[in-house]
Design goal:
Blueprint: H1 2-48, H2 58-106, H3 119-127, H4 137-140, H5 146-157, H6 161-168, H7 170-180
Length: 182
């Protein structure tokens, strides 16, 4: 059995090693992804938001403000369009999921019939022609000792359960139970 335990321990150790290797891989992938997103963000900002150089005259400042306002408006429109597209797509997804759910509901499983089968017939069905064991169910039954039947007799003689419940209910019953040490 020690050989089996060693084998089990080795399998467990291998599983643990694989788990930690997978976790390390996942962590490094997440870090790479985060770095790539940051680079993408910086590139986007460099392309769409050139560094701001403030002009000297009032006239040029007003022009710059007009340009910035126009830019803000166009970006806001883009954002709105993107949000609408997202909402539309989300709604389509929900509808498709509902359709899937409805379709699943339409295919009813056939009702399974109960089949009476002896233990021998079950084993024969499971094991095929290899089944030679004849199940003698009586041989496997536990022998009932005389004391067990005595206990059952005592339980039967306790009497009507309703009477017991009435006796134990209310404060009087609690007091009796407490005094009896139940």
């Amino acid at each position: 059995s020690s050989h089996l335990q060693k084998k089990r321990r080795a399998a467990t150790a291998r599983r643990q090693h694989l788990k930690s290797a997978m976790l390390q891989l996942a962590v490094s992938e997440i870090e790479k992804e985060t770095a790539a997103k940051e680079v993408e963000k910086q590139n986007y900002l460099a392309e769409h938001c050139p560094p701001l150089s403030l002009p000297g005259s009032m006239q040029e400042l007003q022009e710059l403000c007009k340009k910035l306002h126009a830019k803000i408006d166009s970006v806001d429109e883009e954002r709105y369009d993107t949000e609408v597209k997202l909402q539309k797509t989300t709604k389509e997804l929900e509808d498709l999921n509902q359709k899937l759910f409805d379709l699943r509901g339409k295919f009813k499983r056939p009702p399974l019939r109960r089949v009476r089968m002896s233990a021998d017939a079950m084993l024969r069905a499971l094991l095929g022609s290899k089944h030679k064991v004849n199940m003698d169910l009586r041989a496997n039954l536990k022998q009932v000792k005389k004391e067990d039947t005595e206990k059952e007799k005592d339980l039967r003689d306790v009497g009507d359960w309703r009477k017991n419940i009435e006796e134990k209910s209310g404060m009087e019953g609690r007091k009796k139970m407490f005094e009896a040490g139940e």
